[in-house]
Amino acid sequence: MVPVIGDYQMESQIVLVVCIFLAALPSVINRMAVIDWLFLASCLCVYILNLGIFHKNYDFLIEKMFSTLCIVIPYFLMGRLLDINKYLKPMLFISTLCIAISAFYFLIYMRDPAKMAERYAGEYYMKQSYMLLPHVMLLFWQTIKAFRLWKVIVSILGMFLIIAYGTRGPLACLGVFCIIYFFFYASFRFAIWIKGGIIATVALLSVFTQQILLFLQETLSSVDMSTRIIDRMLTGGLTHSTGRDYIKVKLYDLLETRDSFLGFGLFSCEHFTFHYPHDYILDFFYTFGYTIGTLLMLIVVYIVCKAHIVSIQRIEKEFILLLTCCTILKMFFSSTFIQEELYFALIGFCVSILIRHHYSKQTDLPS
């Protein structure tokens, strides 16, 4: 439960979203291009078709209509209009604030004995962990890019919270991003020596893995946070599947035994207890069928890869990597594309780069 707001969290979110949406609407409409209207219209048509075709999903489609059409999909416009050079500092400030508020909320406010029961109401704080992931990833990105002591402290605090929440997916996404960015994107003086030194340090610390894990386990226990990840690392069960193999087998069997051309529609996994496939590729197959699902996935992959290739700004390439790790990579662990706001922001951001590249080529053509 959030202080002051109490039991009205959902209502407060709706009011906040509507107010921000109405305030930004005139400016957004003035900057929208034909492709933006076409994208939004296509998404709306797909949603309406799902209402008409997949009657079994009707209740779920109605229940999630507001969040999907008014919150998730409009993130495409945010990506289209985002100037990362202009808004990076405000984003960094917001991410720092979010990590600090999360630390206060879960390490101080929720330690009140009267609120202890609420701490374990959710399964390992999974939702909070994934919500915090983009902020922590942004801090790590900027820490590696330009070392500052306060960034290091906030980054470590954010990583500590993710570990303490007990969910492996966000930690894996963060780890993949940091490794790829540090070794393939980061550039600074004496980079080869520093990177080599870090590899040697990690190799040396691996000798004391048991002691480090026991220290983290004791630290997390002292602040009443989950030690699930540490426990699994100590017992060697960190990579053990928690039902994902069963989900994949079940959904692929359904696709094979029934008509798989159109798939089962948006939110079709809501009929099961697991709510989503825990697999980005399977999510498209089960929702749209093999043919349409493959086509849509290839389009998204092409847009993202092409934008990364043609972008002439290093910061944009790095931001695409960040968004890819906290959306597409994340969806191999949790969530579904139709409820993933930053996934649509990634598509919008990449489309914006491709449009800019297209017009720059036309400008460069000899008259």
How would you describe this protein?
- This protein is mainly alpha-helical.
- It has 2 domains: 32-73 and 246-361, no CATH class; 86-240, no CATH class.
- It is 72% helix and 0% strand.
- It has 17 helices and no strands.
- Helix 12 runs antiparallel to helix 13 (228-235).
- The longest helix has 31 residues, at 280-310.
- Mean pLDDT is 83; it is low at 113-122.
Task: Briefly characterize the structure.
The protein has 17 helices and no strands. By secondary structure, it is mainly α. It has two domains: 32-73 and 246-361, no CATH class; 86-240, no CATH class.
Keyphrases for this structure?
367 residues, mainly alpha, 17 helices, globular
**Helix and strand run:** HHHHHHHHHHHHHHHHH
Q: Provide the number of structural domains.
A: 2
Radius of gyration: 22 Å
Through-space gap between termini: 64 Å
Instruction: Tell me about the largest β-sheet.
Output: none
Which of globular, elongated, flat, extended, rod-shaped describes the shape? globular
Kindly report the average pLDDT value. 83
Helix content: over 70%
Strand pairing plus helix content: what structural class? Answer: mainly alpha
Total DSSP helices: 17
